Amino acid sequence: MASTADPLQTTRDLLDRPATLRHGFLDVLGKSVVSETPTLAQRAMNSPLVATVYERVWRPVAFYVASGVTTGAEQSRAAEALALSGAHRLLDIACGPGNFTGQLARRLPDDGLAVGLDISVPMLTRAVLDNSGSRTCYVRGDAGTLPFGDETFDAVCCFGALYLMPEPFLVAHEMVRVLRPGGRVAILTSYAGQPAPVRKAMNAGARVIGLQMFERHAFTELFTSSGLVDVQQQTQRSLQFVTAAKPG
Ligand SMILES: C[S@@+](CC[C@H](N)C(=O)[O-])C[C@H]1O[C@@H](n2cnc3c(N)ncnc32)[C@H](O)[C@@H]1O
């Protein structure tokens, strides 16, 4: 099959609101204030310096320490869990510098499209520079109010980000809303599964920088009660990977 003719135009057609083209990505937020009082973690994600070192240094080191899983293994696990070889449209929420969007786009069929959505201009600017291709497009938007209609994507993921969002459960519901029947979701987020004293210290430390630690059942129950099936979970140190499918 032919590759997606124009990923920018195809993505624009999928959006449910107007967008302006900015530094190579589509922006549905413009100058609207996203948070008046950003946390330390949110400020870091808006720093051009962090955006520059994130993919090659910050991400591989921090996530390996947190889970014992390498980035390459994470990418393969994600592609399999999302059944990408049979998917046409992937939405990567909180895509950062496109470090998963670009890799996962390669696992889609030739006519597939991977849309990376993030709120940070520096992260998206890097995504366009470092992880663009004929099957990718980037959008600046808020994960809490996804700018897409219901049942738009065959696969929806959100890695390494729910714990720094003010309303993570709303975002998870948004993921389910934009997922097509028969499609699959995958998330990677924090896991508060340590023994009580360690866990208390980790929760306190996380709160200081603006991160949330989630209980084992927080997302498995949300997905189940939203009607998803085949809900599976892996926990590794302080991270959990959860996948599920929308009945076809
Ligand atoms: C740690 S990075 C994760 C990047 C990538 N998904 C990964 O796994 O490495 C977290 C990203 O979440 C984004 N983010 C935070 N709040 C957001 C929101 N409300 N909507 C969209 N993106 C958001 C940040 O801008 C940042 O790029």
UniProtKB/TrEMBL annotation:
Organism annotation: Mycobacterium cookii
Residue ranges occupied by any Methyltransferase type domain in the UniProt entry: 91-187
A Pfam match: Methyltransf_11
Protein name: Similarity with UbiE/COQ5 methyltransferase
Keywords in alphabetical order: Methyltransferase, Transferase
SUPFAM superfamilies given in the database record: S-adenosyl-L-methionine-dependent methyltransferases
Domain of life: Bacteria
GO function terms (MF aspect): S-adenosylmethionine-dependent methyltransferase activity
